[in-house]
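Thread: quick sanity check before group meeting

JM: Hey all, I'm pulling together slides for Thursday and realized we never actually wrote out the predicted structure for the chain we discussed last week. Dropping the sequence here so it's in one place. If anyone has concerns about the input, flag it before I start.
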Amino acid sequence: MAKTVPAPPREVRIAGAPALAVRVREPEFAEDGAPGPPIVLVHALGRTLEDWEAMTPLLTRRHPLYAIDLRGHGRSEDGAWTLDGLLDDLIRVIGHFGLERPVVVGHQLGGMLAVAYGARSSRLTAVVNIEGHGWPHAKDVSERLGLSLEEAEGHVAAFRRYVVEQVSCTLAPMPPGAFDRMVEAYRSGVMGLPGPVLAASALRSAVIADGVVSPRPGPRAARALCSAFDPFDPDLHYRELKTPALTLVSTAPAATPPGAPARFSEILTIQAEHELIPRGDHLPSRGVDAHYAMHMSHPERVTWLIEDFLAGI
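JM (edit): ok, ran it. Output follows.
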């Protein structure tokens, strides 16, 4: 294996409506002069491309990497909060760099976006969906908890309201002092996640104006994006996929957060079990005993699972 000196990452701004920020890394190692396929990294709602920094030293050993700030996030401009708009941004990034048969790896919102793109395009090597499951299925909740379908639908609706409200609250404007305390708390690390990565993502998403710090994309956009993905059903998209897909599912015990509705943790467990149902050789699902942000807390494990999956395609 020939070793090359890795070049520092490049920050590229793709002009357009909206303009998009992308961090590019060339591969560090190449076997027989041939790196693996390029990988496009897509973060979760309210996050930024910084979230991938724990994994990039591992992935860049074989792959060129293109980490995106989604529209309205990080240093990308605002745009319409629609699935088609986000897909268009992904298409623009792949086209701008002339990527041939890339792998799209996404977390939560980014994972759903990867699956939706894989259902529309056969010009990919594969997609990897990390915890991008959409909303729980009321039918599964009904069957597993012995509830009527109407009762289950009520619990799922409460689950959705709680999640949307929590995400919206984390993106609400705040005084500079409160933001500074939040960043310092992030630096210490929470739930086993890397503090420097959490802090860097918070700083990248912050807009300071009129004495207030506003994390992007903001609560209104967060609610709009959640609504845009309300119809997303991974089962339907998986049946339409035109490329192999790996799904990574958190199987760590789900704690009940303060203020969560009844059955919250049970519903999370039911959803994880649903995602682990076998779908075929080209659509494997793998459980990971880790926090839902497993790409940050367990980057070595997630990288190994991705590389093993790609080696078998």
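AS: nice. The chain has two domains: 2-136+231-311, 143-221. DSSP finds twelve helices and twelve strands in the chain.
JM: adding both to the slides.
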